[in-house]
């Protein structure tokens, strides 16, 4: 017996076998059938005959009596279950294949090993700004490679390309052309009776003028607003009046704590603030030389309006008021004494962050920046002093990862990010100089962890091409942690500070450490031994060169 499937479905609310009489029987003719209307209907075979299974499923959803009641129901469910399992299996297989290809798997496979391939496709005629497409994660799933020997090949390639070359310093006129406004604001001479670089600047506003109305730090950062609210109230009290004109004291820092991140700069800053002869900017890290003067708040967010040099100088107004009080005291006026108060600034990006150069400066040589931060600082402050705090670059990188990573932090995740960053760095040094890669914004943003920040000697050598060695004090965090009193005395001597009382010194050296690792990060434990071995191999040639430059084998970090 067979039935016309279309009219049977139409009659589905009723009994299929009893109501579908018009198409019933072996002699059914669709040319004569009033329901088929001469269309070629698809017949549905029953009575243990073969039938189209899609039609069965469609019919079964509302009427299973045609399959003998309960047996029909069980058979339909089994078909649906099998069909669903097949679809789910296909989806999962497709996900695993595509995920493994693009490195998107959520769970790493312990059996996935492979070698790293360098990126030889970068052509010689491509500029450094066009390297973004090349600095993408490899098609190989390197994120989960734990094979030390494979990663060691990458490190060997990088080591073979290391060459410490001396950069060409730009002349003063070239610097003036790049930053004419800065040179118009900062004089080339400072007050002779002040240890700190300060000068008087004519103020042309009136009593109703807000001197900080356009300051970008006050406009875009809530933490500065309280400081500037206070400065507005006392501003007119600190103006110097001479021949019917008003003058304000402007100051630059006498010394800079320039690096490196996660090396103890915050702790050093907090302790130096306790010295009676030291004042700091309104914020520990203005990041003006490296970022704000280019309009960078976060580079991934694009560029904002550039912060003019006046905004930066405003950050030292609190300290300038105190220096001015000393300068106007009788002791200084009559006895010719010096002002011994000095100002510090502690942006930990100053030593290494020159990422913005590619967007603003032309005439680069083989991808290397034509101007660096230290070139401009030296143009205004050839006698400035700099303090650098360093630590074992292997431990610094892990601390940096724990501090800045937002989610899924683990020793395994850190290992994966190190492996990917090493491959990206290798791709760069195969085609460009070491300096070009270290200062390359595209590469630095592409690397999941900041490997380049631990290449201390590359940055130090560039600073030593501009400033004398006796103007730079390099400390180790490990020494600072083990003998804080010793390192603080080295800083006092370097800055020519006056002696402290026993009480002041005890307060400065015995206070707890600042900006230590968060409890939730400490619970993650140390990095994997394999990761540490890889990073030691990577940083070894750079540490060796650093120890040679500083004549101190402690910077080899062999015992840490």
UniProtKB/TrEMBL annotation:
Keywords from the named record: Membrane, Transferase, Transmembrane, Transmembrane helix
Similarity remark: Belongs to the sulfotransferase 1 family.
Name under which the protein is recorded: Sulfotransferase
Location of the Sulfotransferase domain: 253-516
Pfam families referenced in this protein's UniProt entry, alphabetically: Sulfotransfer_1
Regions crossing the membrane: 78-97
Keyword Zinc appears in the UniProt entry: no
Broad enzyme group: transferase
Ranges for region Disordered: 506-526
Record SUPFAM superfamilies: P-loop containing nucleoside triphosphate hydrolases (SSF52540)
GO MF annotation terms: N-acetylgalactosamine 4-sulfate 6-O-sulfotransferase activity
Presence of keyword Membrane: yes
GO term, biological process aspect, one: hexose biosynthetic process
EC assignment: 2.8.2.-
Species, as recorded: Sapayoa aenigma
């Amino acid at each position: 017996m067979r039935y016309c499937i279309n009219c049977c479905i139409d009659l589905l609310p009723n009994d299929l076998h009893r109501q579908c009489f018009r198409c019933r029987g072996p002699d059914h003719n669709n040319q004569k059938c009033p329901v088929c209307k001469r269309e070629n209907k698809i017949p549905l075979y029953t009575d243990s005959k073969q039938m189209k299974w899609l039609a069965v499923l469609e019919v079964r959803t509302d009427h299973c009596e045609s399959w003998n009641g309960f047996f029909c129901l069980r058979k339909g469910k089994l078909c649906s279950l099998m069909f669903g399992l097949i679809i789910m299996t296909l989806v999962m297989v497709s996900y695993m294949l595509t995920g493994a290809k693009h490195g998107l798997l959520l769970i790493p496979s312990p059996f996935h090993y492979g070698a790293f391939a360098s990126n030889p496709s970068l052509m010689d005629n491509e500029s450094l700004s066009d390297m973004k497409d090349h600095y993408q994660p490899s098609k190989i799933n390197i994120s989960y490679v734990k094979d030390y020997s494979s990663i060691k090949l990458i490190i060997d390639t990088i080591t073979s390309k290391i060459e410490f070359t001396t950069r060409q310093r730009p002349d003063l006129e070239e610097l003036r052309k790049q930053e004419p406004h800065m040179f118009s604001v900062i004089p080339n001479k400072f007050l002779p009776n002040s240890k700190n670089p300060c000068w008087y600047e004519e103020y042309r506003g009136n009593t109703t003028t807000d001197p900080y109305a356009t300051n970008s730090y006050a406009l875009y950062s809530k933490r500065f607003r309280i400081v500037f609210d206070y400065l507005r109230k006392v501003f007119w009290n600190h103006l110097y009046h001479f021949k019917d004109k008003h003058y304000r004291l402007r100051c630059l820092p006498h010394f800079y704590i320039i690096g490196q991140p996660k090396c103890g700069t915050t702790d050093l800053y907090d302790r130096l603030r306790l010295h009676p002869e030291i004042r700091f900017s309104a914020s520990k890290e203005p990041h003006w030389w490296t970022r704000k003067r280019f309009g960078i708040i976060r580079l991934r967010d694009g560029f904002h309006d550039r912060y003019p040099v006046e905004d930066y100088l405003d950050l030292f107004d609190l300290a300038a008021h105190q220096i001015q009080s000393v300068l106007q005291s009788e002791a200084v006026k009559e006895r010719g004494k010096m002002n011994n108060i000095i100002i510090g600034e502690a942006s930990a990006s100053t030593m290494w962050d020159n990422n913005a150069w590619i967007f603003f400066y032309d005439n680069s040589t083989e991808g290397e920046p034509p101007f660096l931060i230290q070139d401009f600082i030296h143009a205004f402050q050839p006698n400035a002093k700099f303090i650098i705090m360093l630590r074992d670059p292997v431990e610094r990188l892990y601390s940096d990862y724990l501090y800045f990573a937002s989610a899924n932090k683990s020793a395994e995740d850190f290992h994966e990010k190190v492996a990917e960053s090493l491959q990206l760095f290798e791709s760069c040094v195969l085609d460009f100089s070491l300096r070009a890669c270290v200062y390359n914004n595209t590469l630095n943003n592409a690397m999941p962890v900041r490997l380049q920040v631990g290449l201390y000697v590359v940055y130090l050598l560039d600073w030593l091409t501009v400033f004398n060695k006796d103007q730079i004090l390099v400390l180790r965090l490990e020494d600072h942690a083990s003998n804080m009193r010793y390192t603080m005395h080295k800083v006092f001597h370097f800055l020519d500070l006056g002696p402290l009382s026993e009480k002041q010194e005890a307060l400065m050296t015995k206070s707890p450490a600042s900006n230590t690792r968060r409890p939730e990060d400490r619970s993650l434990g140390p990095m994997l031994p394999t990761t540490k071995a890889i990073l030691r191999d990577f940083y070894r040639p750079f540490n060796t060169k650093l120890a040679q430059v500083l004549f101190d084998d402690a910077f080899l970090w062999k015992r840490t």
